[in-house]
Amino acid sequence: MENNVSHSSEEAAIASICENFRTHQSGCFVLDKDDASGVATLTICNPTRKNAISGSMMVQLRDTITQLEQWQQGKAVIIYGAEGSFCSGGDMNTVRQITTTEGGRQMSILMQYNLKRLQNLHLLTVALIQGKAIGGGAELTTACDFRLMTKRAQLGFVHVRMGITPGWGGGSRLVKLLGPSLALDLLTSGKQLNGDEAKRIGLVNDVLDCDENDIDDVLLKCKQWLQQYVKGAPETIRAIKAIVVSAMDNTLPDALKKELEIFLTVWGGPMHRNALSQNLKHR
Ligand SMILES: CC[C@H](C(=O)O)C(=O)SCCNC(=O)CCNC(=O)[C@H](O)C(C)(C)COP(=O)(O)OP(=O)(O)OC[C@H]1O[C@@H](n2cnc3c(N)ncnc32)[C@H](O)[C@@H]1OP(=O)(O)O
């Protein structure tokens, strides 16, 4: 009961922020779900501003994540930027109009809400980074399960150069991903890493060998890379993802309880029985 009340008051606060932010219009997100493969693409589309995220896009991201949450056949979503660049963070045209403490609070609350829901999705999420992922764009990548870069792409938490800190959740997530020392290195220097550098410190999973000027080739190579993770059934992937999400948020004793609960949703189910009947060998 208490949880429901706090959930609905959070939703009401988010709805009120959305009313303010939807007036800062430019760009959009484009979602393309492919039921046959279970792999969707989500394009950050504001190319004349290097795919900066405007107020209206922050609102649209909330609604797009709702669509993904409802996609039962889905297994994964690839997030990438239109026209060869990932995302240049907050759209300056929006940001310049919300420089009050209240404006900053509202943007942070809305984007933290969006990125937390993105992180909690039942789907595997991949940030496919071409060109630049900077500021809020770099923060967005930290809420994804996997990060892939093309060789010439650059990823940087450049906030310090603007006299600000991350505010979309990327600072805290970076510490969880890399530990405090490496996170401080990136956050206080504002340095930008290329694919090889980011892979060396474990910030990205892989550097794609692809023709960076050809988005069809970049997407193809990304989908080929993803194949190794989407062979399971949607229900199994969802259950595995739920264990990982729970382990990130909970203490070990609570995560173990949750793991038992999730395990029992698949144990003895039709797929499990079928696998047992086949006497599989995992050679
Ligand atoms: C908590 C999040 C935080 C926030 O909300 O503020 C952040 O995200 S901090 C980071 C904010 N982002 C920036 O400071 C990006 C500034 N832009 C650049 O550094 C460069 O434009 C770059 C590296 C993204 C691309 O450089 P490049 O030489 O390839 O292209 P141009 O500079 O010519 O850019 C083309 C065109 O895009 C406009 N642009 C780029 N980024 C943004 C942005 N974030 N918001 C609005 N517009 C953006 C740029 O001004 C150019 O427009 P033009 O009219 O042609 O001058």
From TrEMBL:
Catalytic activity: (2R)-ethylmalonyl-CoA + H(+) = butanoyl-CoA + CO2; (2S)-ethylmalonyl-CoA + H(+) = butanoyl-CoA + CO2; (S)-methylmalonyl-CoA + H(+) = propanoyl-CoA + CO2
Record keywords: Cytoplasm, Lyase
Principal subcellular localisation of the protein: cytoplasm
Enzyme class: lyase
Record CDD domains: crotonase-like
Compartment list: Cytoplasm, Cytosol
Single biological process term from Gene Ontology: fatty acid beta-oxidation
One Gene Ontology CC term in the entry: cytosol
Keyword hit for Cytoplasm: yes
Domain of life: Eukaryota
EC number: 4.1.1.94
Gene Ontology molecular-function annotations: methyl/ethyl malonyl-CoA decarboxylase activity
Biological function: Decarboxylates ethylmalonyl-CoA, a potentially toxic metabolite, to form butyryl-CoA, suggesting it might be involved in metabolite proofreading. Acts preferentially on (S)-ethylmalonyl-CoA but also has some activity on the (R)-isomer. Also has methylmalonyl-CoA decarboxylase activity at lower level.
Stated family: Belongs to the enoyl-CoA hydratase/isomerase family.
Protein name per UniProt: Ethylmalonyl-CoA decarboxylase
Species assigned in the record: Dinothrombium tinctorium
